[in-house]
Amino acid sequence: MTMKANDLVQAVDIRTSFPFDKNRRVQAVDGVSLELKRGEIVGLVGESGSGKSVTSMSILQLILPPGKVEGEVYVDGMQGNMLTYGPQSEEARSVRGGKIGMIFQEPMTSLNPIHKVGFQIQENILTHQKVSEEEAKNLAIDMMRKVGIANPEMRYNQYPAEFSGGMRQRIMIAMVLAAKPDVLIADEATTALDVTTQAQILELIQNLSKTENVSVIIVTHNLGLVARYADRIYVMYGGNIVESGDKYTMFASPQHPYTKGLLAAVPRLDDRKDRRLVPIEGLPPVAINLPPYCKFYERCKYREDRCKEGMCPLSDRGNQHFVRCVLSAEEVAAKEKSMADDAGSVPEKHIGEEPILKVENLKMYFPIYRGVMKRKVGEVHAVEDVSFVVHPGETLGVVGESGCGKSTLAKCIMRAITPVDGHIYFKGQDIARMKERELKPLRSKITMIFQDPFSSLNPRQTAESIVGEPLQINHLTSSRAEYDARINELFELVGLDPSFRTRVPREFSGGQRQRIGIARALACNPDVMICDEPVSALDVSIQAQIINLLEDLQSSLNLAYVFIAHDLSVVKHISDRILVMYLGRVVETAPAERLYDHPLHPYTKALLSAVPITDPKADENRERIKLSGEIPSVLNRPSGCPFSTRCPYATDRCRKEVPKLQDYGNGQQAACFLCEKER
Amino acid sequence: MIRYIGKRIAQTVIVMLLVSFITFLLVSVMPKDPVYSLFGSDVTPDEYEVLYKRLGLDQPILVRYGKWLADILRGDLGTSYAYRMPVGEVVGKKIGVTMYMSIVSTLISFPLGMLFGVITAVKRGKWQDNVFTFLANIMGSIPGFVIAIVVLWVFCVQLKWLPSSGFAFPWEDFGTHIRTIIMPMFCLVLGGVAGVTRQTRSSMLEAIRQDYVRTARSKGLKENYIINKHVLRNGLVPIITLIGGRLAMMIGGSVFIENVFSIPGMGALMVNSVNKVDVPVIQVCVLLTAGCISLSYLFTDFLYLAVDPRISLQ
Ligand SMILES: Nc1ncnc2c1ncn2[C@@H]1O[C@H](COP(=O)(O)OP(=O)(O)OP(=O)(O)O)[C@@H](O)[C@H]1O
Ligand code: SF4
Ligand code: SF4
Ligand SMILES: [Mg+2]
Q1: pTM for this predicted structure
Q2: Who contacts A608 (Cβ-Cβ below 8 Å, separation ≥6)?
Q3: Continuous H helices in A2-132
Q4: What is the pLDDT of residues B233-275, one digit of tens each?
Q5: Does the C-beta of A26 come closer than 6 Å to ligand 1?
Q6: Would the CB of A220 count as within 6 Å of ligand 1?
Q7: What is the ipTM of this complex?
Q8: Domains of chain B as residue ranges with CATH
């Protein structure tokens, strides 16, 4: 087997397995073939556990025993199948780092804390280029400059601990590119970063791929990212590639039922107001019991008996668009029509007139202590002058990047902490400084769901006692029968089988756990539910189920939600109004549609444009505002407008004065001098 | 950095003061009258009054503590009840023997244990790992004095190669030194090596699993280089901090072993002194042991400072 003319890397039929128990092995990657051409950016997408990372690590022979890799890997400029040389061979090592460099997800732990970053970059250069140490240092500094690190001569001698997460990913990129590889693999390289930082890093990779002439494999679970940054896409499911092709073709006419399912399950920024997500039924596959036929069979809406006859090959549907499905595009389309997707619209909402929750000028500061004597040296202004109202049946979305005060705001409303100043009116009663005794009856009326509902709970507690605890604390049921009936009712409300009552958390999947968390929050018939990142730990197909559940519950129980998340698409999808926060301040608030169609604040614009939509054509036509720099630490907030250090329009006035929220009609308010002038 | 060093030294001084105060309190709780103990039970009541005042026993406890501490700092460690002679003379050489045993055995077991630990971790799952880990597990779980008795039986009783008791410092008589020390040292070192091997192995395995090691591999570096540059230091730094604790364990172990091999160290002295309720001697033994242990902890902290840049950053 030889490589095609302009291929840089070609992987053929990669099969990687790990021992599971004495006589079984997990087939994590089951026959993946992919190729990469010079100058190309390829996206490898799939949900957690689909085998993306294992595929890329197999190509680099980074899989350690007892893991086993079979198949063929050809690399331009190298003789024959790389896998036959063995992972420690001269050849394999010259490919690793020299021809193919890799960046990993965890920016905080991927650099060695005890070596200077300069050393770690230089090390890679010296391994793969014939240069002196001095030249290597210069090359490293050059590359650091190219990836946007200011003052690289000085920073060369710093340790990883002195860099932020985004900066470390830049160091990683510099490290990889300094050895002049042909290929860069970025495995979830930006997943742990804030959205605007994520956009910066991906744009950097995109630009460097042109200037440095490297091809890139972007490995991610995020369909939007590949829609924006990749040229060609591979979709993985259960260790297989199920669909591949040019991104325009693929997003315009996705053909594999899984790809179609994913696209229907993720919210998009440009969704119409009432679009209902269509979750993929069932659970993501577990690698140990995958069938020898179509891995998607269990969850596929269109499955037929002939799908079980064996593993279906990838077939060319024209235009280099490959699909691994027994059914033709026409057959799937026909079935789709006959099933007449009943997803329809989200249930109608009845938003009340009187606000249920009204927050006025809320402030929360935390003292900072230093030294042996624990002297107070300052304050963190975590929430600074925040006001909003929420009506019954309404969802208020809160977005912002890390450290903007979202979770502190939630804790204030829950009265887990007492705000320094301001008012929180719940049904007209100010609870901001209410004593615990008066607060007690109100506590069950404002409840909360979390990202991981069980991290703080006893792992041996049964689902029933988790859900029933609030009932018992508040003495809401008078008899055992009544209690049982209520538990069953709550389980059914959140779509759980009441027979699961006696199970413990670890016996539930991520999505089911979140349902239990919701049932617990609903136990006392609350009026307001605060959702802090409730779906961000879930796979997209499961995320859709939870979002739909929350929407149904809202309409049937007339709940008010405060929905906090960093994922703008999700917030936009579920919210009626959105509050955009930056460094503890509200910079803009508007109805969800309005905010997307007509953002006013430069930060909102940047945030929106950092989030790609899963339609490459439409995405390219959107206005893009790119930010430079990083979010300042709350410890040294800018004295004027909080955004002034990164705002492309900042003036002297912005750096001195804090802009106030001004009303711009249509329920929209923004805090920016520029908007005031343009009015 | 300097502030950190200053702080650690201050902490050590405070710990020592606390320990000294607690050991001083021993006198008051011990059911032994210092006057009779020092001057014999035939002291008349009148003489008793005088001696009682001379010893300062009529003064408040804090004043007596202050005086005692000042005496200690001047080098006057008090008078032994049992021997009726200065504690310094009684304790001096014996504590030297024990400290010598513990420090030397610690110094031998650390490099050896670290070496075996590194080998077992790097060769994880290979025969080297299986053999050394198996041995370390066995040796680590047999109490030191059991090994001591076995060794004693084999080499003294059966083979008659080595003397069963006695001790000499190397600068006194090197030949005797080697012959007397080889068995007790072997027993101490064996347990030490086993312990350090196991600790090093798990710390190294932890270091090998780190993400930055994967990064190093992805750069195509040689495996040996990766172990040297990226694993070793991270894996061994936590081990260094265990030196203090190990020394404390060695002092404890030495006290046992000394009794088995009739070595005139602190072990025998302590047992004797406790039997005879020789409070001043016990006080000084405890104080000196605590002092050695605190100093070794202090030393390991500074060592840590030297090898880990993260700490000096803070
Ligand atoms: N070292 C290992 N030992 C055993 N199983 C493994 C190992 N590494 C990965 N697997 C299994 O291989 C499968 C694929 O994992 P992989 O990490 O490639 O998924 P992924 O698509 O990268 O997911 P994610 O989005 O969570 O990063 C999973 O079922 C995982 O549990
Ligand atoms: S092969 Fe069958 S089960 Fe698999 S995706 Fe196609 S239709 Fe669904
Ligand atoms: S006030 Fe000034 S710095 Fe702040 S967002 Fe507006 S233009 Fe930018
Ligand atoms: Mg992965």
Answers
A1: 0.82
A2: A269, A568, A595, A596, A599
A3: 52-59, 90-95, 117-128
A4: 888 888 877 887 788 788 878 878 888 888 888 877 877 787 7
A5: yes
A6: no
A7: 0.78
A8: 94-277 (1.10.3720.10)
